[in-house]
Amino acid sequence: STSPSVKKNAVKGYGATVVECKPTEQARDVAASNVVKETNGVLIHPNQDPDVIAGQGTIAKELLEELPHLDAIVAPVGGGGMIGGIAVWAKHVNPSILVVAAEPVAADDCFRSKKAGEKLINEAPPVTVADGVKVSIGHNTWPIIRDLVDDVICVTEEEIMDATRLVWERMKLVIEPSSGVGVAAVLSENGKRVLTGRKNIAVVLCGGNVDLEAMSWNPKQ
Questions:
Q1: Cβ atoms of 145 and 114 closer than 8 Å
Q2: How far apart are CA 52 and CA 47, in angstroms?
Q3: Distance of CA 194 to CAs 152, 185, 190, 204, 205, Å?
Q4: Euclidean distance between the first and final Cα of the chain, in Å?
Q5: Could you tell me if 97 and 90 are in contact, meaning their C-beta atoms sit under 8 angstroms apart?
Q6: Contact between residue 140 and residue 53 where contact means Cβ atoms under 8 Å apart
Q7: Distance between CA atoms of 217 and 48, rounded to whole angstroms?
Q8: Four-point Cα dihedral 103, 105, 111, 116, nearest 10
Q9: Separation between Cα atoms, residue 132 and residue 130, nearest integer Å
Q10: Alpha helices (runs of H) in 117-203, residue ranges in sequence order
Q11: What is the pLDDT of residues 49-75, one digit of tens each?
Q12: What is the pLDDT of residues 188-216, one digit of tens each?
């Protein structure tokens, strides 16, 4: 129910039906299960389905085909499908490449999971401008992240907003704050520490669903 209107309207514009539910992972699972039963459908999970994870791994495939000398790949993490797919392919092609996940401090389940050595979740719905990475890592992506992702960098809301604005102004690319998480990670002090000695770094810009009605999040306005 808290998904930005720009995303809901886009889904409706493509002819699909938006089913509202409470902003918790349990509520989403229940709602999805009900839709499957009512429509006799098949659930294709957006980040835990093996084929989806493999498809997202083609990001790393294309990157390394064009830039074979990459030292590191940094990508935002929510459910873990994208960073998981990237890690599988990147480490297959180049075991020495650094694969780094980036997430908001307000939704730091991946960071905490890596530190604890077990899958942890965000106990309450995270409050972050990066709405695309609010979900916790899942049962299929956790083993990949545990074994193949080298580090996780957490960034503040201010860092996310500053990085998003920087890309808008300097690169002239319309990215959403969830995409800005990866940029913020690279620019952060912790990111500089993690990426020390790595010269050729790719940052994945994973979405451009900007809710113009929510522009008030920009503290500089």
A1: yes
A2: 6
A3: 9, 10, 6, 17, 19
A4: 27
A5: yes
A6: yes
A7: 30
A8: -160
A9: 6
A10: 142-148, 157-166, 177-187, 189-194
A11: 999 999 999 999 999 999 999 999 999
A12: 999 999 999 999 999 999 989 887 766 55
* H helix and E strand count, the chain: 10, 4
pLDDT at residue 221, rounded to an integer = 46
Q: How many CB atoms lie within 10 A of CB 69?
A: 9
Q: Please, how many CA atoms are within 13 Å of residue 7, restricted to the half-sphere of its CB? A: 14
Contact call for residues 76 and 181 (beta carbons, < 8 A): yes
Summarize pLDDT for 16-51 with one digit per residue, the tens.
999 999 988 889 999 999 999 999 999 999 999 999
CB atoms within 10 A of CB 217: 13
The pTM of this model reads 0.91
Supply the DSSP string of 71-106, one letter for each residue. -EEEEE-SSSHHHHHHHHHHHHH-TTSEEEEEEEGG
Burial level of 176, CB count in 10 A (0-12/13-18/19+)?
Answer: buried
CA distance linking residue 46 with residue 38, whole number of Å: 20
> Residue 62: enclosing H or E segment and its boundaries?
helix 58-66
151, 101 contact by CB (below 8 A): yes
Instruction: Measure the CA angle with vertex 123, ends 211 and 195; round to 5°.
Output: 70
Q: Are 149 and 137 in contact (CB under 8 A)?
A: no
